């Protein structure tokens, strides 16, 4: 009986406290506004979010297709590894696109240099990892592409938050292959919304396969060539060369073979 009586007393005290708080609100506050916080992670209304389900073997073709469809837009592309930022930058530059990587293997000065090239419009595609992108002051980004789906769903919110800022319109497109579907489902659960599919034309995508494959072959060769050089202790990545020199191309020039 003692335990039951104690529970009743505690319940009465809680009810009394709630009643007193409500009365104080009515007496002390003028035109109070009640705000309810949602437990879901939300994104802004000006952000258009889409996904594209694709086979892993054609991911690069779909990636290039989207960039060409959205040509002229400023785009941040997120990958899960530093090597992927470098490889994709090489592929895109071989195809004549103005892309530049930024990742944790680059020195602070190189990261700032890449960021400045992107902000100035010298390059309109920035390939980055989650870690390298944090702290960057880039006010206007038209599009975010999740080339790799993040394994941590909350990273998705940080990524897409790079666009549609200060009332501007923005687009976020996630490339989802058969191995990443589980991670993508977790993202939809987190944001509490099922996203529409990006309307890609498969026939047009596959027309890019030969050009993209050749661009990738040359990019892999370049990666092996630069990665095979031994570095002395304390020597910067990319051998201290300018980023454009590392990419194997002079500014504003691309191989004629890949020009349309």
UniProtKB/TrEMBL annotation:
Residue intervals of the Helicase C-terminal domain: 46-206
UniProt xrefs under PROSITE patterns: HELICASE_CTER (PS51194)
Keyword Zinc: no
One MF annotation (Gene Ontology) recorded for this entry: helicase activity
InterPro entries: DEAD_box_RNA_helicase, Helicase_C-like, P-loop_NTPase
Keyword terms: ATP-binding, Helicase, Hydrolase, Nucleotide-binding
Entries under Gene3D superfamilies matching the protein: P-loop containing nucleotide triphosphate hydrolases
PANTHER family: ATP-DEPENDENT RNA HELICASE, ATP-DEPENDENT RNA HELICASE RHLE-RELATED
Record's protein name: Helicase C-terminal domain-containing protein
């Amino acid at each position: 009986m003692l335990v039951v009586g104690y529970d009743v007393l505690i319940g009465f005290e809680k009810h009394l406290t709630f009643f007193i708080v409500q009365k104080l609100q009515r007496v002390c506050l003028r035109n109070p506004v009640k705000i309810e916080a949602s437990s879901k992670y939300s994104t802004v209304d000006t952000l258009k979010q889409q996904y594209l389900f694709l086979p892993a073997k054609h991911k690069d073709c779909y990636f290039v297709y989207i960039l060409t469809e959205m040509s002229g837009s400023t785009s941040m592309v997120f990958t899960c590894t530093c090597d992927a930022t470098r490889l994709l930058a090489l592929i895109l530059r071989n195809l004549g696109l103005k892309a530049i990587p930024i990742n944790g293997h680059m020195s602070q000065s190189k990261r700032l240099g890449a960021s400045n090239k992107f902000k100035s419009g010298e390059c309109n595609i920035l390939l980055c990892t989650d870690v390298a992108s944090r702290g960057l002051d880039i006010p206007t980004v038209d599009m975010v592409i999740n080339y790799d789906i993040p394994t941590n769903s909350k990273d998705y919110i940080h990524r897409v938050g790079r666009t549609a800022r200060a009332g501007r319109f923005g687009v976020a497109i996630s490339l989802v292959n058969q191995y990443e579907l589980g991670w993508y489902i977790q993202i939809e659960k987190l944001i509490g919304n099922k996203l529409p599919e990006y309307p890609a034309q498969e026939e047009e995508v596959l027309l890019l396969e030969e050009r993209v494959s050749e661009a990738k072959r040359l990019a892999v060769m370049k990666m092996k060539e630069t990665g095979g050089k031994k570095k002395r202790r304390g020597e910067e990545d990319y051998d201290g060369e300018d980023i454009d020199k590392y990419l194997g191309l002079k500014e504003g020039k691309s191989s004629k073979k890949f020009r349309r």
